Amino acid sequence: RTLRIGLIPGDGIGKEVIPAGRRLLESLPSSLNLKFEFVDLKAGFETFEQTGAALPDKTVEILKNECDGALFGAVSSPSTAVKGYSSPIVALRKRLDLYANVRPVKSVMTAKNPIDMVIVRENTEDLYVKEEKTYEGPEGKVAEAIKRISYKASFRIAKMAGEIALRRQKIRDSGVPSIHKSPMVTITHKSNVLSQTDGLFRATAREALADPRFKSVGVEEQIVDSMVYKLFRQPETYDVIVAPNLYGDILSDGAAALVGSLGLVPSANVGEGFAIGEPCHGSAPDIMGKNIANPIATLRSVALMLEFMDEEAAAAKIYAAVDGNLEEGKLLSPDLGGSATTTEVVEDILRRL
Amino acid sequence: RTLRIGLIPGDGIGKEVIPAGRRLLESLPSSLNLKFEFVDLKAGFETFEQTGAALPDKTVEILKNECDGALFGAVSSPSTAVKGYSSPIVALRKRLDLYANVRPVKSVMTAKNPIDMVIVRENTEDLYVKEEKTYEGPEGKVAEAIKRISYKASFRIAKMAGEIALRRQKIRDSGVPSIHKSPMVTITHKSNVLSQTDGLFRATAREALADPRFKSVGVEEQIVDSMVYKLFRQPETYDVIVAPNLYGDILSDGAAALVGSLGLVPSANVGEGFAIGEPCHGSAPDIMGKNIANPIATLRSVALMLEFMDEEAAAAKIYAAVDGNLEEGKLLSPDLGGSATTTEVVEDILRRL
Ligand SMILES: CC(C)[C@H](C(=O)O)[C@@H](O)C(=O)O
Ligand SMILES: CC(C)[C@H](C(=O)O)[C@@H](O)C(=O)O
């Protein structure tokens, strides 16, 4: 099988980690019978400065028409609003209808307090519809934004969360060690304040998860503020968390803190038949060009992308190689307290494939 | 000076901790020259079930016309939406224009990694305006909520954050030991996505803090998701955090997790010349009636209320008595791993006044 992968490094360390992702794909054992072709694509603040568009139409078209999947690095946000600029990754998620942002946060099993959760974040609506207006009120400026929650988006994201819970259980049943015994989905919302919007999310998620297919999946709820509290007090209890866009954004950074570094946390932006792997860290201009960015978030994002292309064997190989590197703990990047370069970490992981 | 205090226990353990707050006020040393009168007031889910109103008008009127301050316990949220019921504390904040929710999160100085921050949360707008609507779209129900951010509310909350930063510095300068050397305010927002609403919050907060009065106060910014990440990775770096309503809600629960229990975290809802102390924990129906609720969040909320009534000497006495109890660590409630009852903890703290 030959897979065509779009590569969108973006800004900052995106340019260092996406090439590492490419190397990983090129280094997968031939026994997997996978071939890859790559197409380099532009997006980001630098692209905006050069072309006036942060997300060129050409990038979207090539992804849509020619690619089986893609890897996205990171984009820089200007420190003050720049006219005409808006985040290309948010736009990309919407234009390709990549309705789920899947963010597994997992420590190695040998950690003192192992955790293993995945945050399934709705990726197309909520406050991210970016419908804002500003007007002059009697006491100065007032700005409003719309938070939109739909039955359709809530249903499909909860369904995906249920499917991921089942898939994780299948992997556990196959003998992969885990801290969880049975599948569980936690629905996050703030319906005690937002009874209509978050109320709709909550009720719809419950409806989707009531499908007999999910009868083995436990379902519980957490209000978002107490979810953040529990995330830090009892992180080991969480298996799959499903949340509207903004809460998912916040929760996944919080969960990342638990494993020691954002540099470890991958994500996939997933739609019908298409997935873009994306490390959760940003463009990190402060460490750019130093060859010290942690490549693991990207390597795991490659694996996650492959999972959504049903290439689970390839994904499993990558996860195991990364875990091997982390468990040995000899070649770690500076964010994990080590002194290895990006290249050294990548090479150590490739050796373990 | 005689102060008249409204007591609103609300539901659940609110009924156990608010009486502890009253006892504390009655037990303050006479050298402080403070007298207290109390008026019992109703609000909460039980009140709603009895009277049809979660926040009776009478409660609001007595607070407005007769009281110098108040203590609020907690309210239960029904597990599914109940027609006509909506959170009385959210309503109270708005009706009394208690525009700031001040939440200090502090470990004892003898903690392994001491932290000492205060979250200054805007308390009247953002998604808490609760302007929602639901309509039938082509693919099912759609619900929308308004997130409103105004110049006026953003300015006054940032100004209050600046004032609190200065006040904290004054207390440090007077010799009270602290982990901070100089005052700092961190502005939290998500203006990389919400350029108008959160952009307005950010720009206005910067403007308010640029006042020459605050020239000794450092000002920095954090995007809310990375704020949650940093809160858990480097909590000791934060002094004063200012945030729109919802982010403030989430951040304060997150910060509470760092000190080991929500049962330790106080808050004050503050307006012009009026403050309501409120423990950050909820009504905790699971432990209600067992006399094991941690009273410390309420006792510290009493102190915080007194600070906003300019009774700083009384507040300092209470903080010191609570710290004494925690540092000794002999009489702790179950949430802190101890086995003391609510009454025993209260009595230990009263002894230390
Ligand atoms: C950069 C920003 C727009 C983005 C988001 O909020 O989704 C980022 O925080 C993320 O989590 O991918
Ligand atoms: C109970 C709820 C409405 C409230 C809020 O969101 O403000 C609570 O979480 C709080 O922090 O006081």
From TrEMBL, chains A, B:
InterPro entries: IsoCit/isopropylmalate_DH_CS, IsoPropMal-DH-like_dom
Cofactors named for this entry: Mg(2+)
Reactions catalysed: (2R,3S)-homoisocitrate + NAD(+) = 2-oxoadipate + CO2 + NADH
SMART domains: Iso_dh
Molecular function GO labels: homoisocitrate dehydrogenase activity; isocitrate dehydrogenase (NAD+) activity; magnesium ion binding; NAD binding
Pathway: Amino-acid biosynthesis; L-lysine biosynthesis via AAA pathway; L-alpha-aminoadipate from 2-oxoglutarate: step 4/5
A GO CC term attached to the entry: mitochondrion
UniProt GO BP: isocitrate metabolic process; lysine biosynthetic process via aminoadipic acid; tricarboxylic acid cycle
Annotated transmembrane regions: none
Keywords assigned: Amino-acid biosynthesis, Lysine biosynthesis, Magnesium, Metal-binding, NAD, Oxidoreductase, Phosphoprotein
EC number: 1.1.1.87
Isopropylmalate dehydrogenase-like domain ranges (all copies): 4-349
Highest taxon of source: Eukaryota
Protein family per UniProt: Belongs to the isocitrate and isopropylmalate dehydrogenases family.
Name this protein carries in UniProt: homoisocitrate dehydrogenase
Lineage: Eukaryota, Fungi, Dikarya, Ascomycota, Pezizomycotina
